[in-house]
Automatic annotation (TrEMBL):
Residues 145-160 have a biased composition (Polar residues). PROSITE patterns: WD_REPEATS_1, WD_REPEATS_2, WD_REPEATS_REGION. PANTHER family: PROTEIN SPA1-RELATED 2, PROTEIN SPA1-RELATED 3. Residues 133-144 have a biased composition (Low complexity). Keywords: Repeat, WD repeat. Pfam families: WD40. This is Uncharacterized protein. GO terms for biological process: photomorphogenesis. SMART domains: WD40. The keyword Repeat applies. The keyword Repeat applies. WD repeats lie at residues 589-624, 684-724.
Length: 820
């Protein structure tokens, strides 16, 4: 034990041997007596600090939020001296000091700032103690105290540092643990006792004469500090100046006259504890058994019993409050669950009726086709239909789809989200985002991750008569489960030995899906014929057209009206218009000052092109401004939209040439009416990183992709607000943190790349992936396919009106994939 204590001291350094975060609790819930000293033992924490234990139970606790510093309690301006309160507090501190001394420790910080009081005047010690290292059971032999051994010869300087450390510890921990201990707030309120100032003076008030002379701390010094504390308990002051003057006089054992008149017994006992000679002061056991503390012991025992009873009552009340709150919350959850179950039950009835109606029509058609059918056959057919609607059939159908069960929670969330949108559309009088009241009135409030929150009563639902949600949800569910895999139909390896990088930056099909083009950092646009690529008799596939650019290419876009026309953008900031039939560029558009990331032809106006650049602008070009045949002539833009950040993508909707959307490096998507390009129609906020792609799903629905690992679906028709910050759907399941990985939309299916070298397919109705395919590389030795995690998918594109898509990765490998 002795060696352990010493090693702990040496490890702790200036913290005086104990972990200052430890809190020494009430050493007894009753008034200490002679037998208590036999129960105290010294223990060691597994953090290297030391703490006291009483019997078999730990006496260390965390400071509660309602506890208050003894220093603040003493300096409270409305404090009235209560004899029993003061004796109770003093007795507990004396017992703490006695317990430490009995184990060979000097409690150097017997100061009010190192103790806290509970609401029942329980005292807790929040500072560390210093180890004497003597290993003795008491501190009776002051000459054998080895505290100086750990102090060294520079004792005054060390003591000063320790005192400062103590003050700093209190100041730092006060804001965390104690209510109302913030120094700055106290000063702002002009407290008569500014905490910071008082703490600075407190160290001097509680320094014994021998410590001030440079002697090491001893048990007698703790007794001296007890005398100072006892004086503070009984002597009140109205100002910091009066307090400082009184405490300064105390160092010379001079008491205020009113103190001597009002508290004569206490004054005599203080004089005894404050004796200038350490050897003349009583030992800690003598203090504990003195007449001053022995006389009121019976009253204190009775007071302790009352406090214990109050604490038990408070604890029972706390437990009762907890159980009541728990019951209330569970009841609310049960109410929500009952409403949700009723809501689902009404939907089941609705779907069952619809299914029976459809099946009835089918049966009626069969009967008309077969005039010989009898009434018994009708009954048999109706029975079969009825059996098909049994819950067992429905359950079996669900469990037959592992993909559906794996994503059941997300499908559940999508169902409630669909129902919420349908309800909002059909029930107009409801206030948007109104909270649910006790009578069930209010709107449905759902989050993307929740299954269901608050649903209105079934009566209100029946008033809406909404059935449109069935078609939309069923269509999404059907399409989500329609395909099981992505199958490779053909592969192309377009690696160029003359180029160190073969990254394909952009892919695109022409308007009829007969040709697709690739472009990338190899500065070439290659056009392939789709049907010839699928020809299994050909081992090597060559492009039907190959066109070279002066710079690395970032994006291409086919003209949806003029079949052989492609627009491209490059790293030099030039937009080029290519004639595929003539195998050359016939127009260059040079106004961008930096790299152009994206280019797009308008669907409704085939002469209009948009481009987005690192120069924080979107430019609009009319390719028919001048008659250009075979000569390269610089074009002039017909409009410019300036932004505050780099533009990474631009996109026209398919049904209008008057609107445009683009994504920016400021994490936002902007939707503009080109007839008024000064301000955006809407700003879409929700991504956390750069928006790399935007695609129109339809005229009022926009999809965005970002390097925050998400895709977001936005409804542009619902909101007329300038800012839309609530996407309809957020898709997660792919990885995209730093690269352009491609994005394409077709018939509700969304294809995107992943930095795991995978193609991921979503359906717009559900937030989780429906299909995925991983690009593997062929091992040149074994010929087996192995994963290449260093590569990523760089571009994807759906073939129009089909279940086929083309995808390329950063190695230049291209695959035609089909959903099967």
């Amino acid at each position: 034990m002795e060696n352990s204590s010493e090693s702990n001291w040496q490890r702790s350094g200036s913290s005086r041997g104990l972990n200052s975060s430890a809190v020494l609790n009430r050493y007894s819930r009753r008034i200490p007596n002679d037998q208590d000293s036999e129960k105290a033992v010294l223990g060691h924490s597994n953090r290297g600090g030391t703490y006291f234990r009483e019997g078999d139970g730990a006496v260390i606790r965390s400071v509660e939020s309602k506890d208050v510093s003894l220093r603040q309690w003493l300096d409270s301006t409305d404090r009235v001296v209560n004899v029993l309160d003061c004796l109770h507090i003093f007795m507990q501190i004396v017992e703490i000091v006695r317990l430490a001394h009995s184990q060979g420790f000097v409690v150097q910080n017997v100061r009010p700032s190192c103790f806290v009081l509970s609401s029942f005047n329980r005292v807790s010690f929040i500072e560390s103690v210093s180890c004497s290292g003597s290993g003795s059971d008491s501190c009776n032999d002051e000459s054998n105290n080895q505290t100086a051994e750990f102090r060294g010869q520079n004792q005054p300087e060390v003591n000063s540092n320790l005192r400062k450390s103590s003050e700093n510890n209190w100041l730092q921990s006060g804001s965390l643990y104690l209510e109302g201990s913030n120094v700055e707030q106290a000063e702002q309120k002009k407290n008569p006792f500014p905490m910071k100032k008082v703490l600075q003076m407190e160290s001097n008030w509680y320094t014994s004469p021998e410590e001030a002379a440079g002697a090491p701390s001893s048990c007698a010094c703790d007794v001296y500090r007890l005398g100072v504390l006892l004086f503070e308990l009984y002597c009140t002051s109205s100002s910091a100046e009066e307090k400082n003057a009184t405490m300064s006089s105390l160092r010379h054992r001079v008491f205020p006259p009113q103190f001597l008149l009002k508290w004569p017994k206490e004054a005599v006992f203080c004089l005894c504890l404050l004796h200038p000679e350490p050897d003349s002061r009583p030992k800690i056991n003598e203090v504990l058994h003195s007449e001053f503390l022995s006389e009121p012991r019976d009253n204190l025992i009775e007071r302790e019993a009352v406090l214990e009873l109050k604490e038990k009552i408070q604890e029972q009340e706390l437990l009762l409050d907890f159980l009541s709150t728990l019951q209330q919350r569970k009841q609310e959850s049960a109410d929500i669950l009952r409403r949700t179950v009723s809501f689902i039950s009404s939907d089941i009835q609705e779907v069952t009726k619809l299914q029976a109606s459809i099946s009835g029509k089918q049966g009626l058609n069969s009967i008309n086709d077969d005039s010989a059918s009898s009434g018994s056959r009708k009954r048999i057919r109706n029975a079969e239909i009825s059996n098909s609607l049994e819950p067992e059939h429905q359950e079996n159908a669900i469990y037959k789809s592992p993909r559906l069960m794996k994503n059941f929670k997300k499908l559940e969330s999508a169902y409630f989200s669909t129902r919420r949108r349908a309800f909002k559309t059909s029930v107009k009088p409801l206030t948007k985002n109104a909270p649910m009241s006790s009578d069930g009135k209010g709107s449905i409030v759902l989050t993307e991750k929740s299954s269901a929150n608050n649903f209105p009563p079934i009566k209100r639902l029946s008033e809406g008569k909404q059935t449109g949600w069935i078609d939309s949800f069923l269509d999404g569910l059907s399409k989500y489960l329609s395909f099981k895999n992505l199958e490779v139909k053909a592969s192309l390896n377009q690696g160029d030995l003359l180029n160190s990088s073969n990254l394909v930056c952009s892919l695109g099909f022409d308007r009829d899906g007969e040709f697709f083009a690739t472009a990338g950092v190899n500065k070439k646009i290659k056009v392939f014929e789709y049907d010839s690529i699928l020809d299994e008799n050909r081992d090597i596939h060559y492009p039907v057209v190959e066109m070279s650019s002066r710079s690395k290419l970032s994006s291409i876009s086919w003209n949806n009206y003029i079949k052989g026309q492609i627009a491209s953008s490059n790293f030099e900031g030039v937009v080029q218009i290519w004639d595929v039939t003539r195998n050359q560029a016939y127009r260059e558009l040079k106004e961008h000052e930096r790299r152009v990331w994206s280019v797009d032809f308008s669907w409704s106006n085939p002469t209009l092109v948009a481009s987005g650049s690192d120069d924080c602008s979107v430019k609009l070009w009319n390719i028919n401004q001048a008659i250009l045949l075979l000569h390269l002539v610089d074009g002039t833009s017909v409009g410019t939209i300036r932004t505050k950040a780099n533009v990474c993508c631009v996109q026209f909707p398919s049904d209008s040439g008057n609107t445009l959307a683009f994504g920016s490096a400021d994490h936002r998507v902007y939707y503009y009416d080109l007839r008024n390009p000064s301000v955006p129609l809407s700003t879409l906020i929700g991504h956390n990183k750069t928006v790399s792609y935007v695609k129109f799903v339809d005229s009022s629905t926009l999809l965005s992709s970002s390097t925050d690992n998400t895709l977001k679906l936005w409804d542009l028709s619902e909101s007329t607000a300038k800012v839309i910050d609530c996407p309809v759907q957020t898709f997660t399941g792919h990885m995209n943190l730093k690269n352009f990985v491609g994005l394409s939309v077709c018939d509700g299916y969304i294809a995107t790349g992943s930095e795991t070298n995978e193609v991921v397919v979503y359906h717009k109705a559900f937030p989780m992936p429906a299909l995925s395919y991983k690009f593997n590389m062929t091992d040149p030795i074994s010929g087996d396919e192995v994963s290449d995690s260093d590569q990523f998918i760089s571009s994807v594109c759906w073939r129009t009106q089909s279940s086929t898509l083309v995808a390329a990765n950063s190695m230049g490998n291209i695959k035609l994939l089909e959903m099967v």
